[in-house]
Specification:
single chain; mainly beta; elongated
């Protein structure tokens, strides 16, 4: 309930602040590691509202995946089997962003929502896989640099760290990315 109030307050706050604001939409590619094990390439969509010369709000929509080894019990053969599962998530980070000429820093919370899974080992008989609860909440921090390319087009390379706390297992992501941003006029 409190999370809804915070998100609602941020949205209302961003609508009312219109002096010196800029709006950006972006598309990016991200290479991230989770728990230092596997490198995953993902895509990212973003909306950014700069309220003031130094302050703004960043909302993103990311695809994220985690590969886990899991053991399950087969009732037919009465044995334990191991499978490798790719968990698929939709990640929604909402961050405060500080802008400077040298580097931009953004930090905030993110919500990862479980949207599906895929069995990576065809030799196992895993037919269902569920996570309860289907969401997890974490914190994120990014350091980026905005580079003007053309009139309203910008390139923004970034590095990030994203620990997830509220989940059946705590985990973290870190990586690098690059985003093309377009300034809406």
């Amino acid at each position: 309930m409190k999370l809804r109030h915070i998100v609602f307050g941020i949205i209302l706050f961003s609508i009312n602040l219109t002096a010196q604001h800029k709006n950006f939409i972006g598309f990016g590619v991200v290479s991230e590691m989770n728990q230092g094990k596997m490198l995953h390439d993902n895509v990212s969509f973003s909306y950014e509202r700069q309220f003031h010369k130094f302050h703004g709000l960043l909302i993103e929509l990311n695809r994220r995946q985690i590969i886990r080894n899991t053991t399950f019990y087969n009732n037919i053969n009465l044995e334990y089997l191991t499978s490798r599962v790719r968990e698929k998530y939709l990640s929604i980070p909402v961050s405060y962003k500080f802008y400077s000429k040298i580097v931009n820093i953004s930090t905030g919370f993110n919500l990862d929502y479980f949207v599906g899974w895929e069995n990576l080992l065809n030799n196992s008989e895993l037919t269902s896989y569920n996570i309860n609860p289907r969401y997890s909440i974490g914190w994120n921090i990014k350091i980026s640099k905005t580079i003007p390319l053309y009139s309203q087009l910008y390139l923004e390379p970034e590095i990030f760290y994203n620990p997830i706390f509220l989940h059946q297992y705590a985990y973290y992501h870190y990586g690098i990315g690059a985003k093309l941003k377009y300034e809406l006029k």
